[in-house]
């Protein structure tokens, strides 16, 4: 079982438009509402692959109730913690060329009591979990050290820890030696305090995070591929995508594929790449099912192209 923790979940509403023009009235060709938040997306992808998953998250207002219903409809067990503030609603506008404009709400501010209840819910549900995935930004009311405290509790219950966050929350949690951290290129650069121009730069930065506590690093480099650095070495992989429809949740789908495939080694990296490539071909934040995956298009190698320039954050 894979347990996910999303301290600041959302409802994600996506509009597909012919083009985004500032100040204009736009008519959407299609729209949808999906459960959102990094850990929520990981659970959705894990459930789509046929594995059991439990999502621990704060829920507030009518938005929280809808989020819980949508997740249950996708086969995700929800361990909700009631909070006073309403669950946030994020809006994304997708254009035909794959350009995505997002407006993310701040979300509710959690009280000290609500934060404690959320931490207790993780402790109660961690027993029997193979992985606990701690994902996303921390809401107002939670200190950067909160993920570290969560990781300590989950590890005491016998679970492995996957961490997908950034900034001070990532730095603080490294002290608890998470089994895998999953930054994108921008988050990786911020964590080491310098720009990353090449794949080699990213590999060196991943090595630094391992030296600071991460047992392994799964780094998403957007269109340039993904890196996995662990005790056995450094692996690099790519999965070409002809047409990008939406990159919302693609990194979360990658983490789900990685964990569902065991969470270590080149085979898990290949699964991460296949899930991420499948996700960007789907609308909104729809998570891929096994039928969407194309492992034959994935390439994984130990021959890391260290001099290859990074082209940016595009999917």
TrEMBL record:
The keyword Transferase applies. SUPFAM superfamilies: Ribokinase-like. Residues 18-290 form the Carbohydrate kinase PfkB domain. The keyword Transferase applies. The gene is pfkB. Keywords: ATP-binding, Kinase, Nucleotide-binding, Transferase. Belongs to the carbohydrate kinase PfkB family. This is 1-phosphofructokinase. Pfam families: PfkB. Gene3D superfamilies: 3.40.1190.20. It comes from Streptomyces thioluteus. InterPro entries: 1-PFruKinase, PfkB_dom, Ribokinase-like, Tagatose/fructose_Pkinase. Transmembrane segments: none annotated. It comes from the Bacteria.
